[in-house]
Amino acid sequence: MNSIENRLKDILIIDLFIELEKNKILAAHSFRNDLGIDSIGFVELKSQVEKQFSIVIHDDDFTPDNFSTISSLTELINRYGKANGVRG
User: Fold this and answer.
1) Distances, alpha carbon 6 to alpha carbons 25, 27, 38, 40, 59, in Å
2) Which of 14, 25, 41, 67 could form a disulfide with 37 if both were Cys (CB 3.0 to 4.6 A apart)?
3) Tens-digit pLDDT profile for the chain (88 aa)?
4) What CA–CA distance (Å, rounded) separates 8 from 5?
């Protein structure tokens, strides 16, 4: 598991109170359907990702496609990191 995925799982458990063991959260789990994140949870997830990865996610990128799974969010973070010269 890469460090971005690991950090995202920590955010889900610590900040969004997802009640699964870290090793049971899969990169392909749907945030909404599998983990039960609601609209307020997505706003919190965005906020925590911005804080943890020192990025600002533009409104155009705050979409269901980018925030559907750990995998999709990891790709978004990688794109922002490369644009800012940051590594996850």
Assistant:
1) 10, 10, 21, 22, 25
2) 41
3) 579 999 999 999 999 999 999 999 999 999 999 999 999 999 999 999 999 999 999 999 999 999 999 999 999 999 998 776 555 4
4) 5
Q: What is the CATH number of the domain that holds 27?
A: 1.10.1200.10
> Which residues form the domain of 64?
3-84
d(CA 76, CA 13): 20
Give the CA angle between residues 20, 55, 42 to the nearest 5°: 40
Q: Which helix H or strand E contains 41, and what residues bound it?
A: helix 39-53
Q: How many residues are present in the chain? A: 88
Q: How many domains does the chain have?
A: 1
Residue type, 14: I
